[in-house]
Amino acid sequence: MAIDFSNKPGLVVYLTAGDPSLDATYDIALAAIDNGAQVLELGVPFSDPLADGPVIQRASERAVARGVRLSDVLALAKKIREARPQAGIILFSYLNPVVRMGLPDFCKAAKDAGADGVLLTDMIVEEAGEYLAEMAKNDLAPVFLAAPTSPDERLKAIAEHSKGFVYAISRVGITGTQAQVASDAESLVARLKQFAKIPVAVGFGISTAEHVRSVSEFADAAIVGSAIVKLIEDSKAGEEATNVGKFVKSLRS
Predict the structure, then answer these.
(1) What does the pLDDT look like over 74-122, one tens digit per residue?
(2) DSSP at 125
(3) Beta-ladder partners of 90
(4) Which residue from 43, 38, 50, 54 is spatially nearest to 5, judged by alpha carbons?
(5) Which 3 state secondary structure label does DSSP give 80?
(6) Is residue 239 helix, strand or coil?
(7) Which of 8, 67, 206, 239 registers the highest number of CB atoms within 10 A of its CB?
(8) Exposed, middle or buried by CB within 10 Å (0-12, 13-18, 19+), for 180?
(9) Of 33-47, 138-152, 172-186, which range is least confident?
(10) Is 170 a residue whose pLDDT tops 90?
């Protein structure tokens, strides 16, 4: 298991695989790891990413338009694993691409690619029996989302069935940068910590070094997504990896 947040502050970096290209994502991923990202979330491009805000939606649309598929993301994960065996790798997807491949085939392919775990945004813990069985069969960590609106009973189920870490959503809504960390985040982490024996990472709206420091005071790790995807979008061709490396390093300062 390569998911390890012992080097504080814990940092998870999300990338939309294939934006601007698969080769560029590979270079960006290595730059992020080399500058302090402990876990990568490799986003599978999807045509209807309902949980994501406009920045990640645009990245997903660009990658889909280039023909990037789940099989490409698995191949990319394997390439990153070979280059940086110490990093945690989580495949981040919606359920449809996984169902299209077939759950058993997907879990086996994810394991063969060197992934540590999987986060399916629209997989709810109450209906995850078959999914959990296939994940366990392949020694993969299922990561579930926990929201501020979830009652304690549901948080308990999420904590009990997640492995690697629990993804705490800092606020209700879609992904995207915010001026401040939502006040709901700390109370949600405190509620989760009643049940979770694994790390809790906070995402949605985390975009600055100040946010990361703030989150590290009450959670095990911060997850940064839209800010990095936007930086990639705004970078000149060929400069994406350098820019992301500098940004990730600044987040740990």
Answers:
(1) 999 999 999 999 999 999 999 999 999 999 999 999 999 999 999 999 9
(2) G
(3) 41, 117
(4) 38
(5) helix
(6) coil
(7) 206
(8) exposed
(9) 172-186
(10) no
Task: Say which residue the tokens 């990640």 belong to.
Answer: 56
Q: What is the pLDDT of residues 113-156, one digit of tens each?
A: 999 999 999 999 999 999 999 999 999 999 999 999 999 999 99
CA–CA separation, 45 and 48 (whole Å): 9
- The CA-to-CA distance between both ends of the chain, in Å, stands at 26
**Torsion (CA) 8, 17, 54, 242 in degrees, nearest 10:** 60
Let me know: does 192 contact 168? Beta carbons within 8 Å: yes
Q: Which residue, chain included where needed, has tokens 């805000």?
A: 53
Residue type, 156: K
- Three-state DSSP state, 237: coil
Q: What is the arithmetic mean of pLDDT over 28-36?
A: 97
| Residue with the two structure tokens 């959990």 | 132
Query: Any idea which residue has 């609106």 for tokens?
Result: 149
The two tokens of residue 73 are 């993301």
Alpha-carbon span 223 to 243, nearest angstrom: 18
* Alpha carbon separation from 110 to 77, 90, 117, 246 (Å, rounded): 8, 9, 8, 29
Residue with tokens 């990658």: 63
Q: Which residues belong to the active site? A: 41, 52
Q: How far is CA 230 from CA 33, 55, 159, 235, in A?
A: 18, 6, 31, 9
Instruction: Classify 166 as helix, strand or coil.
Output: strand
Of 151, 80, 77, 70, which is closest to residue 105 (Cα–Cα)?
70
- CA dihedral over 213, 214, 220, 221, signed as positive or negative: negative
